[in-house]
Each structure stands twice: as C-alpha cells, then as structure tokens.
Description:
The structure holds two protein chains of two kinds. In chain A, 73% of the residues lie in helices and 3% in strands. Chain A has helices spanning 9-35, 42-65, 96-119, 126-145, 149-167, 174-205, 212-220, 224-227, 229-249, 258-261, 267-276, 281-288, 290-294, 297-319, 324-344, 348-375, 393-407, 413-426, 432-459, 467-472, 478-493, 507-521, 534-558, 571-577, 579-630, 632-654; strands spanning 73-83, 86-94. In chain A, strands 1-2 form a two-stranded antiparallel ribbon. Chain A is globular. The relative contact order of chain A is 0.08. By secondary structure, chain B is mainly α. Among the domains of chain B are: 275-469, no CATH class; 512-542, no CATH class. In chain B, the strands form two sheets. Chain B has a two-stranded antiparallel sheet. A two-stranded antiparallel ribbon of chain B has the order 2-3. In chain B, α2 (25-49) packs parallel to α4 and α4 runs antiparallel to α5 (133-142). Chain B is globular, with a radius of gyration of 24 Å. Chains A and B meet through α1, β1, α5, α6 and α7 of A and α7, α13, α15, α16 and α17 of B.
Amino acid sequence: xxxxxxxxxxxxxxxxxxxxxxxxxxxxxxxxxxxxxxxxxxxxxxxxxxxxxxxxxxxxxxxxxxxxxxxxxxxxxxxxxxxxxxxxxxxxxxxxxxxxxxxxxxxxxxxxxxxxxxxxxxxxxxxxxxxxxxxxxxxxxxxxxxxxxxxxxxxxxxxxxxxxxxxxxxxxxxxxxxxxxxxxxxxxxxxxxxxxxxxxxxxxxxxxxxxxxxxxxxxxxxxxxxxxxxxxxxxxxxxxxxxxxxxxxxxxxxxxxxxxxxxxxxxxxxxxxxxxxxxxxxxxxxxxxxxxxxxxxxxxxxxxxxxxxxxxxxxxxxxxxxxxxxxxxxxxxxxxxxxxxxxxxxxxxxxxxxxxxxxxxxxxxxxxxxxxxxxxxxxxxxxxxxxxxxxxxxxxxxxxxxxxxxxxxxxxxxxxxxxxxxxxxxxxxxxxxxxxxxxxxxxxxxxxxxxxxxxxxxxxxxxxxxxxxxxxxxxxxxxxxxxxxxxxxxxxxxxxxxxxxxxxxxxxxxxxxxxxxxxxxxxxxxxxxxxxxxxxxxxxxxxxxxxxxxxxxxxxxxxxxxxxxxxxxxxxxxxxxxxxxxxxxxxxxxxxxxxxxxxxxxxxxxxxxxxxxxxxxxxxxxxxxxxxxxxxxxxxxxxxxxxxxxxxxxxxxxx
Amino acid sequence: xxxxxxxxxxxxxxxxxxxxxxxxxxxxxxxxxxxxxxxxxxxxxxxxxxxxxxxxxxxxxxxxxxxxxxxxxxxxxxxxxxxxxxxxxxxxxxxxxxxxxxxxxxxxxxxxxxxxxxxxxxxxxxxxxxxxxxxxxxxxxxxxxxxxxxxxxxxxxxxxxxxxxxxxxxxxxxxxxxxxxxxxxxxxxxxxxxxxxxxxxxxxxxxxxxxxxxxxxxxxxxxxxxxxxxxxxxxxxxxxxxxxxxxxxxxxxxxxxxxxxxxxxxxxxxxxxxxxxxxxxxxxxxxxxxxxxxxxxxxxxxxxxxxxxxxxxxxxxxxxxxxxxxxxxxxxxxxxxxxxxxxxxxxxxxxxxxxxxxxxxxxxxxxxxxxxxxxxxxxxxxxxxxxxxxxxxxxxxxxxxxxxxxxxxxxxxxxxxxxxxxxxxxxxxxxxxxxxxxxxxxxxxxxxxxxxxxxxxxxxxxxxxxxxxxxxxxxxxxxxxxxxxxxxxxxxxxxxxxxxxxxxxxxxxxxxxxxxxxxxxxxxxxxxxxxxxxxxxxxxxxx
Lengths: 655, 543
C-alpha cells in the first residue's frame, strides 16, 4: 500500500527543529557570554519549537485519517548496515499500532512543548531545552515507526540519550548530572539485553527475522520450530533478553531505580519522557513482538510476576514520598507495572490501551505538578504545601480530574483500561489468576491511597509554607493552562475508545485486532473456567478505589506529616525506597569498584616489573664500564676478539 | 602512481619543512598545514577511485641459510580495503592534529612538523605494506624514531623518562617479530606473505605456536593489549596532545592491522583448525574489560583516554579473531570510528589542559557554561565514543558483538556487552567532570580558536556519515579483500561451515524426538547462517 506523502516526513520535522534550535542555542549562548544579556527572541524561538512537532502531528493525522483498519504503509529509504548476508535498512512501517502510538506521542509532545514555553521562560538554556525536546521527539518517532529491531534500537538509545541530556539539563548542579548518568547507565545495561536479544533472533533465522513482519510471518508459519529445541531455546532467550531491555526503559524490577532520580530534570521533561512516552517504549516493544512472546509463555510468566512485584513495590514507595514529583514518579512505575501485567497475560491490546489512557492522565498530573512548583517558586516538598485548591483553582481542577482518572473512578479514562487489565489477570493462569488478581487489586487500592494523600496534602488544609511564598502564589500563564486542560479532557474521554461496559464502544480493540489477533487467538495463558464478568470487575475496581480514597482522605486530613527540616527520607521509607539501589550497589557497583581497585594494583605491579627489568642492563653496563675505561689493553683485546668472532660468523656460518 | 605519491608526500613535506623559517612560527605553521593537507587529498582521491596497488620492484637481498642467492626483498604498495582506510585515517588525523599544533607547541614548530610528517609517512608506509614482510618491518620499526623524538622534545615534565620507556619498550617488543620473520623467511627463501604462509604450514605444530607467539607479542605491544600495555599510559600522557592523537588514533591501529594482515593470513590454518583464535578473543576481551575498569578510576585525562583506547582496540582484536568477513568489516568501521573519536577527544582534552594548566579531570569543569561551542563539540564526540546508534562506533560494535555471539562461545558477547557498559560509564564520567558543574572562580573563558573549531567539523560530520551510511567502508572490504589476505583462508571457511552443518544435523537427529520433519529441516537451514539459504529466505519474505 502506498501513499502520496512519504513516511519519513513524520520524523524529519522534529529533526529539523532540533538542528535549527540547536544552532540558535549555540549562537545565543555565545552571544550571551560576551554581552551578559539575552537577546529578546524567546517568542520566535518558541513558535519555531512548537511548529515542528505540530507539523509532525499533522502528518500523522493525514496518514491516520485515510487509513483503512487493516491498512499498512511501508517505506524503505535506504540501506543502513549491509555486509555479506547481514543487512539492515532504514525502513518504516505504519500500521494501526504505529498509528495509535504516533498520534498520542506527537500530540502530547506538541502540547508539552507549548507548556514548556511558559515553564522555561527566562532560563538561559531556553533554546537548547527546546532543541533537546525536538530531538527526543525525533528519536521517539523513529522508535515507533521503525519496521525492524535495529532501527527501533536506534530510537531506543536515542530517546535514552535525550533523556540523559534533559535530566541533566541544569548541569551546573552535579547532582542532576549524577541522576542523568545513572539513567543512562542503567538503561545501557538493559540495552545490552536488547543487543543480545537481536543476536539470538538472527541465530534462529538470519537477519531477515529482525524485521517485525518477517518475524511474525515466520512464527505464524507453524509451530515446527518449537520441535527444534535449539531454535526454541534461542527464541525464548531472545524474548527474555528483550524483556530485560524493557525493564530498563520502562523502569521495572530490577532496573527501575533510575526513574525516581530522573525527576531531577525540568517538569515538562518528567511529563513527556518519564511519564507519557519514553517509559512506555518497553510496553510498545513487547506489543510489537507479541507473536514472539506468545510462543514463549514461560517468559510471560516472568513478565507477569515482575510486573506485579513492581506495581506493588512502587505503590508502597509512593506512599512515603515527600516530593510531589517523586510521588508521581513512583506512581508511573506502578502504572507501568499494570501495563506489563496486561502483557504478562497476553492481553497486548489492553496494555497499549492503558499506555494510551495513562499518557493523558499522567501528563496532566505532571503538568499540574509543574504548575504548582512554578507557583511556589520551586518548592517540591508536599509537607510545605497545602490549601492550594482556592489559590490555584484551574491547576487544582486539572489535577483533580487526572487524579480521579488515575485511581479509577468510574467513567474516566484510566478506569476503563485498569478494569480491563484486572479482568484479564483474573482470567489467566488458572487458579493462580485469582491470587494475582488479589495482588493487583491491592495495588489499585494503594494507588487510591497515595494519590489521595498527595491531593490532600497539596490542595487541602492550610498552607504550611513560608509566608513570603504565600504572597507570591499565582496561577500559571495561559500557555501552560491550555495544554493542561486539553490533557485533562483526554483524561476524561480517552477511555471511551474502548469502554468495555458499553456495547459498541470498542474502536480501540477493533483497530488493533489485525495486529494482535493472532497472538490472542493462540494465547495459552487464558483459563477456561475462570472468568470474571466485566460488571463484577468494574464493581470490585470501583469499590477499592473508593475505599482507598475515603480512608486516605480521612486519615491524611487529620495526620499531616510535619516538615522535619530535611528532605531525606527516614526509617522504613528510606529502606523501602532505596532497596533496589542497595541491590544495584551490592551486585554491580561494589564488584566493579573492587575489580578496578585490584586491576589498578596489577597495573602498578606490571609497570614496576618492567622498570625492574629495565634496570638490569644499566647495572651490567656499569660493571663493564668499570672494567673497560681504566684498562686499555683489556679493552683492545676484547675489541679484537669480538671483531674476529663477528667476522668468522658472517663469513663461515652465513656465507 | 597516486599511491606512490601518497607514500612519498609526507616525506616530501618533512624535507620541505626544513627550508621554512625557524623564526616566523606563524608562516611555518601555515606551510605545515598545507603539507599536512597534501596526503589527505591524495588518500581521499584514492578512496574515490577505489584504491590501487603497485607491482613488486626488487629492493635488496637478505642473507639466507645455505642458499647463496639469499632472500629477495621486493617493494610494493597495496592500497585497498582496510589498508587504504587506515592510511586515509592517518592522513586525516595528522591534518587535524597539526591544526591543533599551533596552540600545543610553544617552540620549534618547524622541527615538530618535520618529525610529525616523518611519523605520518612511516605509519602510512606500514599500512600500505601488505605483501613483503621486510618492507612492513622497515616501516613498523621506523615509526618509533620520530615519535620518540617528538616526545623527548615537546613532551611534558617527565618527557625524558617517557621517551626511554616508549622507545625501548616498543623496540624490544618487536624483536620477537624480527627474529620470527627472519626465521620464517629464511626457511621459505622468500619474504612474500604467500610464501611465508606456505612455509609455515610445513613446520611442526610447536614451531608454529612459537612463531605465532613471537608475531603476536610485537603486535600486541603496538596495539597495545594486556599485559603489554605498560608503555601506553606514560607515553600518551607525556606526549604533546597532537602527537597523542596520532599515537592513539593511527599508530595503535598498526598493531591491529598487523594481526589482520600478517598474523591471520599466515597462521590461518592453526587459528581455524585448532581454535587458537579463541585465546586471542579472550585476550582482546580481557583487555577491553581491563581498560574499561582502569579508565573508571583514572583522574589523569590522558591516561583515562589511553585506557579507553586499550578497551576499544581490545574489542577490535577480539572481533578480528572471530575470523569472519562480516565481523572484519565491523572491525574496520570500529577502527575508523575509534580514530575519529579518540583522536578528537585527545585533541579537545589537550585544549582543556591548556586552559586549566592541569591534566586532572577534577580541575576541569563547567565548560558547558563557559565555552559552549567547545562543550558541544566535546559532547558530540564523547557521545560517539559511547557508540550510540547513528554514530560510527555503533556499527562496528554491533557487528563485532554479533560476531562474538555467533562464535564458538556466545558467552563472549556478554563480556563484550559488559565492556560497552563500562565504556559508557567512564565516558560519561569524563563528560560530567569536563563539561558540567559550577563555574569556579578565575576560570579561563577564552574561546576555541576558529581553526580549532572548524577542524572539528569534519570529525563530527564523518562520525554521523559513517554512522548512518557505513557502506563505503563495508563495501570496500567485501570487494577487495580477496586481493591479498583472505585468499589463504577463504577456502577454509567453506570447509569449516560445511563440517558444522553435518555436525549440527547429527546433533539435531539425536535431539529431535518426533514430529514435523519438514519444519525441523527449515529450522536447520536457517540456523546455520549459510548465505545462500538466507538470501532465498529473505526473498521469500519480501514477496
């Protein structure tokens, strides 16, 4: 299927934007350095920065509008790495999964770039920041639009790089740079998994299988390869390696520690990269490889267990945080856990649906949080907030809508997707399904508790901050308000793309069925006898949300945590939150340090031994010199003797 | 014709520089810049016409055993594939490094240029010597002299010690190669590579191993590989930074080149049949991890980059000994990429050293705020050193790791993976300490000079160009490698893979319990990455 517009237009716009803004940023900072004053072009720069994502969004819409439900656009723009039998090209694939991902990725990006114009106003790195955002969008589009694993990896590391640049954006503080380094390195560990996964796939059937469509065809082609133990082993290990890569990018156990630290970046970055788009790349990848994962059910079991563990762990960690952005970060980790739960039971379309609804909801929450931080002049500690509902009514309303959606109050976006996940978890893995369901339900309850705690501490009660900040509290400008309200609207209505209780409203599922139809038809995890009706799931989901809400509202209105004079977490909160940091430390950091210490000693020893060896000739030479200089006759005799030997050797032995 | 000019032009430059003024440093520098551009133009032109070579010309005779005629030594130049790319890289780096020399060299720019071009000429000479081992050895040994002179005159505080260490260590390191090559040539009665390989195959295993060790010690010293890297840290850190860029970016490649063009063709039989190559892969990977871990602890920026070179070239050697043409292509890309990134980083950190007057990375900092143009260039080249996809390093690392995964032990790929995690760790540490942080009092705010800034542009462009379109490098190898080196072992590869298929079928039979025979056979076909089966399959898919 071909179209009039080329697909490469979609990524090229943000790339152009990134380069243009990058050049502007460079000249601007050089200018600022000499004149100590910024030239007043923020308006033009801002317009430029929004224009490119908007053009990209428009292009995606143009593709999406005319596309039939099972339509696929393919395009290859050239060869990348091609040597011998190995060949990878720059190929794009636009199907319904790509369509949904790209629509919300480019749409939300445009909104958040717009928001950043207000949020970052006056910052010296204004143009640089917007350039990085455009570069991020380029990489994210490549990740989603690619038709093969290597090109996805291009986007995968590209978004990681942009994440690194943006977390460490305020680079005068080395702590921010540390958080950025950590994000990059933890992701790099996952990326090695990605590489190994790709190699394992090529070991089964050559380079051609790195292409998604070829891989699917190959796997659909029959289960014969499962009879071949070696191929089956390679395929399962490929699935496991790729899932490991996803745990890095999507912050699951064991590679989840970087995401809370990533909150060191500016808030629009947290909203765009660390909530709505980049961190869901792992879910996208697994959905893209649905056929591979469905034929390796043993890997899916691991996925489900890890997802449940991550969701529960992060929900508990979210309960004890003081930093408004950290609460949301742990909430993101927990929600990503829900998405992986759906993947773990083979419900790929449900996972993507939750990615979709969560993107609006969490982006709105983060932008709201950004607005609060903006109003309070940089304070992020919720113990020093309170009573902001009437001072920031618009922000409050946005955050309240998104909050209600996130905890799953009926009718809002995340309610629909979360219910579907819970329902599917119940209906899988036979009797275990009920246990898993209970854990997931408990996590949903905790979600309601920590989110209500956040809302109560920020917006209700009395203001607990300093007086002079109280006087300056102001609502953010329109350029920030508009994106927030659009996202809040999304957080209300996005769920009606697949409202399972209302017959006929399942456009989302219908769109994705050509992609996941095969995987779902052979899903070995579905259990015959256990099935939860949609209505029962809905009632159970709603009631835990309401129970959590009421409990937390009552409890945290009475018991407001006092500001203890430090931002450090203490006691249980600290142990629980940093458990995985400690684990990383013990497993990776300390052994590395010990190994490098030992190797430094070995290196010293090597240098020393070379020097000792080198000291022998001078010592001998000194001895000989003592003999040679003083006694002329001996010297003469030795010279003659040696010459004779050399001449003899040359003449008679070599000839 | 062009290729002879390429070899002669650096020496012409060196001699012509003698005629320039020793007083007027500025004009001398400009003349030097012209002469450093000359080989680059020639090498680029050669790349565009696809390379060339010259017919062997009789040079002189070596005394041999018994036979009175002795061993004939001929002189010929070979400029295709890896040889030509490395020669081009050398000329490019020399040009760039010389552009940075005006700020690095405070006195005697004329003498600096003379030695610098002589060094360039000898390195290019050794890359273009692929047929006669005596000719190769001539250049291989000769390059030590100008490098030592440069360190001893323009080096840092401990330059005298560094010169001695560098010259003696590398000279002693190549003695085993001299003896081994002479022994082998005297048996073969010729010093041409094909005769050497033939003579070697007649020798007993133990002698072969002894010779392999002798050859490898020399090249492992030059690369360097663990444990023969002791000269590297002190030489790199004491040398003036344009020279360090050449030492790491070009001279170290001679070692890898030696493995590729001399060790592998001559010892191909033993490397394949007796799997001696696994030891080399292990040494290469150990060097990679070793260099990475040491770089993590270094505070001296030049030593940090020296160990990072050790790490990257260790991976290159490991890839080379996968003995696979796909991986060899990856090694070539990695070498070009490493030349660009390591060369660039050495030059840029030299600038930082000049600004702060220290080589300690803790004394750097905040260049992102004070010198944004410098920081942007440094950042891009640094990220390229991490081998993010889209930059040239990724193509090389990807192909090499894939080769390691397909080698006898897939476990090697995991070690390589650990190595690339380490490379990210130390490079990010370098970037963080150099570019970021609070601006200190009294920090130098002088900008990068125009020449230095402009000289960095081609490096950045090439990093992205080869990262997105490595075909020029990859294709040049697949077309022309048969010209010299792979002829000896290309036959062996086929035998080898056929044997593997038989073995594998046997294995499969024993493992398969029951079921679909046809699909089993399909999987068998696809599992062995034999090219014809694969292309067929690929075509099937595209239909």
